[in-house]
């Protein structure tokens, strides 16, 4: 039996072998091991440490943009943190209550004549609070992966504010002259206020937890059943993945009622799954069961849904049990897939011989994502204040992680060194029960490499024999695409990394015959791979030499990335099936949203002869990854993963809408050619800071709050019922 | 739905400027984007990020008759899964360049199927060019020039072998296409409306709504 690890921390000396990775539990942290951290950030410049300026250019919505009713803001109580920034949820509630007509079009009120003067102050206050909390810090220091990021001070309209310490509430100067609650409230200030409020972790982001209304479900949740219903027979008998559960369960979902409970016991995870996280006190009670509960239900069955399902089917195809399959991973097999060609024996703990000779002596290598308190002593390179990091650590140290709290905390960004663990927890890859975590992880890695042993025959030549004729097309395509994955990142060009990526994409393809490999999925694998690898080697993976990374770490990264990619795509499968109906539906929804948000913009785009699918297809297919640098993508994924597995369908839609609205003014001034060229390579790819991304996410949050449960307010809904 | 004025827009002065919509088709990784990038920006990347959906570029060429032709280039994604998007791009096109990789016979087979599809479904007067890319890999050639040339002649296609990497014949492809398009009846070639969204937008309703505000 596996002894219960003392902590979630599982740093191993690099000398330990792949066998320890696969077969063992965590030894205690050596007290003398220095924590590995990303290289210290450059010292902030004098000017940026005393004051900062932020781009507010995207706040300049012209008349006709979405405005909230001024009265609603006046009636808005201050935020719970007393910062003077309205609680977004209250704001929304008041808006609906005080809306003159009680119908949605009142959102399109023209701004009051005296609004403009007040607006920058409101924006500045909110933005400042946001920035003070962490983002400016992040932008100033350069984020972990910020090789392409820039300073945030690029805006045309800037608001200067006095510098305060991280985590401070909104600076008084901006709100003193005219209290926020008395100025006409512009939509443009709202996202920042949301972000600022959300920064204060006691503020309830209630609307994020709302259960989708039934109408919303009809519009937004129909993807999964469609996949299940229309899915063609699978060659290997793998059943369809249904991670996107469109119906929130009203109970918390004990594991005994889970559809895959039997499978869970098969992988030894059931006891972890039965322990649902207690509801966070900050989560409002809901009679119908909240979105949080939905998350909890899914999350309490960490390794339950899709991939285990698929594995079960794959096993049964071969007429052997899961356990027997896992046990078939012998040292001999390991030698075939381990990137370094090592064949560690099971249970071989601490075999220093397996360490490549070039490896520097005994840095601590954490294979579980570096949940280490000691790391807090070094300055954060990710702009996350120490106090927030402590909250993460506190949550992660609990015997059973409260996922609801972890989601709330993660929405605003996750510390670099904790990201791997938090992502894996929130995606349901790791059980919330700490005692079972390591065993579950090892089990999943064994499962993955059992599949590799079955389906992958490693020939390193690009045009050699393919593992099977039926999947040779997919493998051919994967091998064409892997070297082309973001060619700007040298790490991706390393043969060791490329083989690893090929394997995991190929195994994913084998297990998802309805979609198979589709170009763009390779992009989606990379954030996982980079985050996990960075975490396991304790430094930014972009700077590492793969030849010097221990084979067991690469193997762990590969397996964990595979599973998390599977989880991510399971909520989004019909985006990649024949005809890509999921993407087409998303693009249509985006268009509906834009019609509602800014009919002028929509008309301009259409009149110029541009169909939304011509630019938005890629946004949906690659989750805006081609429009962001890797560091910003990873930050976005913090929020996506906190939103839930289906965020790449639901929340992403609103991010895309906010993204397009961000460039509204530029687009309106351009013709067909200008728009197409601009929108294919928007400034976000090269110029956006973390602040820009977080404002985008905040704007998306507001849009989701307004529209997600109200599909009939969108164009198609209005068209259906508007003439009555 | 209001549409752009025809993409054929003949500019004010003496009908010397023409604008055409061109679509690049072909199997994955044959070098469609590389040809386009070489033609448009004169650049080449050994590893070009895969195209998702389609990419848009413009570039002009001078024809021997003194006219200037500006191409609106739609560079499509090559993977079979994206096939369903292709009609949106070739439907309103005046010309198509079907690309294959001379060092990979399977891409030539796929190019033939693209040609068949264009002949069946594209505008009847579309100009089709067949381009064999990766001429720099002629040492590992799998498709002979004679074979491809014969196929092109048989199907009345323009034919050029080129290399985006070495810039051999890249501009020639587009120049040949530009000169092959009959300038006189250009304006009737393809209305813009065909390549915009098939979705109907009820502008009247939207106008009504805005009056409420």
Walk me through this protein's architecture.
The complex is a heterodimer of chains A (724) and B (213). Chain A is built from 34 helices and four strands. Chain A is mainly alpha-helical and 724 residues long. Chain A has helices at residues 18-23, 46-50, 70-74, 88-98, 115-141, 172-176, 190-199, 206-209, 214-220, 223-230, 261-266, 270-274, 291-299, 306-317, 322-327, 331-337, 386-397, 403-410, 416-426, 434-455, 472-481, 495-511, 521-537, 551-570, 581-597, 599-607, 612-621, 630-643, 650-662, 664-668, 672-680, 684-687, 690-707, 715-721, and strands spanning 11-13, 51-55, 158-162, 364-366. Among the domains of chain A are: 386-456 and 471-571; 581-708, Cyclin A, domain 1. Chain B has a single domain (17-180), classed as Rossmann fold. Chain B is built from six helices and six strands. In chain B, α4 (145-154) links the parallel β5 (127-133) and β6. The longest helix of chain B has 17 residues, at 105-121. Chains A and B meet through α21, α25, α26, α27 and α31 of A and β2 and α6 of B.
Greatest interface: A-B, 54 and 43 residues
Helix content of chain B: 25-40%
> Strand pairing plus helix content of chain B: what structural class?
alpha/beta
Uncertain runs of chain B are 1-7, 186-213
Major pleated sheet of chain A: 2 strands, antiparallel
List unreliable stretches of 5+ residues of chain A.
1-366, 460-466, 717-724
Helical proportion of chain A, percent range: 40-55%
* CATH architecture descriptor text of chain B: 3-Layer(aba) Sandwich
Strand content of chain A: under 5%
**How many separate helices of chain A?**
34
Supply the helix-strand structural class of chain A.
Answer: mainly alpha
- The average pLDDT score of chain A comes to 62
Quaternary state of the chains? heterodimer
| Euclidean distance between termini CA atoms of chain A | 67 Å
The beta-strand count of chain B equals 6
The count of β-strands of chain A is 4
